[in-house]
Amino acid sequence: MAITGIDINVAKEFLIKGELVAIPTETVYGLAGNALNDSAVLSIFEVKNRPAFDPLIIHTDSLEKVQRYVSDFPEKALLLAKHFWPGPLTLLLPKKQTIPDLVTSGLDSVAVRIPNHPLLLGLLQTIPFPLAAPSANPFGYISPTNAAHVNAQLGEKIPYILDGGESEVGIESTIVGFENDQPIVYRLGGLAVEEIEAIVGKVRLMPHSSSNPKAPGMLKSHYAPRKPLYLDRRETFPEIEEKLTGYLLFNQYLENIDPEYQRILSKNGDMKEAAHNLFAYLRELDILPIQQIRAEFVPMTGLGLAINDRLQRAAAKE
Ligand code: TXA
Ligand code: MG
Question: pLDDT band for position 225 (50/70/90)?
């Protein structure tokens, strides 16, 4: 098990030595290393068991620092950065040489974000490099939203987990890139599309681009629990299940089924609460003595788009 603590100086020591530390963010926990140190970046891929063609997001604490790593900042990107950073928004921008090719898997753009978590911002302020950090889960599994989730899966492989409590947003950042200076959403996430559009007008959505070189990591069978997950509208759930089943539901229990085998994302139908609970509940269901999980689609408003996206990826078959 990794040591879990709240000491940013301990985290800093490990990072300066080129070692990895799990970090809290408002979206999900990250597996962080010095983004400017090739060997630290390599160990991120190793520890996560992540293919080298899937690039990493770099995290820092100020717009001024971001400018050191990117060679161009389209007007709409700047508008979004000013509105939503620190926050669950990742921008794809042309990279400067300072960012190693390993971080971007050889692409000429780099994914950057300023996360909104006080403990992490404190750490980022004291280190002279950005942190490359994918979500702190083994490749393909559900992202962690608390320190215990990280410890359960990567605890043997890292020395320290900076414990910042539960991730408030609960779902990864929204990734926005630019073509001819026009914003394109490549990954739906913790910042709702409506909020982005309120600032920069209509945006294009290209979230399912597993074949798109802009988001090579958007592989279909991502975020998957170990138990098979079937996704549908609840009206079409079978009357009688042949297998022991757990349920992930939006705002209402199913009658005639033991509530212990049901998780309700938000009793009030609040999308932010639903996103916050999504991954934690999937994990809870995954360790119940059941054979399969049945989940229902949530309404397609606000963070509902990102929630349904994750559920679809979790449900994807090989
Ligand atoms: O909320 C988040 O974004 C979390 C926290 C830790 O910040 N991080 C996260 O990282 O979700 P990860 O590695 O699990 O997902 C990053 C995604 C991948 O799908 C990757 O393909 C995409 O970002 N990405 C990174 N750099 C890219 C680039 N230069 N061009 C296109 N896509 C990129
Ligand atoms: Mg991930």
Answer: confident
How many angstroms does the Cα of residue 20 sit away from the middle of ligand 1?
17
Find the distance separating the first CA and the last CA of the chain, reported in whole Å. Answer: 31
Amino acid (1-letter code) at residue 315: A
Residue 221: predicted pLDDT = 57
| pTM > 0.90 | yes
In the chain, list all ranges with CATH 3.90.870.10.
3-205
Total Cβ atoms within 10 A of residue 180:
5
Question: What are the C-alpha distances in Å from 164 to residues 7, 56, 120, 134, 216?
Answer: 10, 21, 8, 17, 29
Helix pair angle (304-315, 271-286), 10° resolution:
20
CATH 3.40.50.11030 in the chain: give the residue spans: 229-315
Name the CATH superfamily, with its identifier, for domain 3-205.
DHBP synthase (3.90.870.10)
Q: Is the dihedral of CA 234, 236, 241, 242 positive or negative?
A: negative
Q: Is residue 113 helix, strand or coil? A: strand
Contact 254, 262 (CB under 8 A): yes
Helix axes 147-154, 271-286, angle to 10 degrees: 30
CA torsion 145-147-151-157 (nearest 10°) is 90
Best residue among 56, 107, 120, 124 to mutate for probing ligand 1, ranked by most atoms within 8 Å of CB: 56
Query: Quick one: which atom of ligand 1 is closest to the CA of 30?
Result: 6
Contact 297, 290 (CB under 8 A): no
Domain 229-315: give its CATH code. Answer: 3.40.50.11030
Gap between the Cα atoms of 22 and 161, Å rounded: 5
Q: What is the ipTM of this complex?
A: 0.99
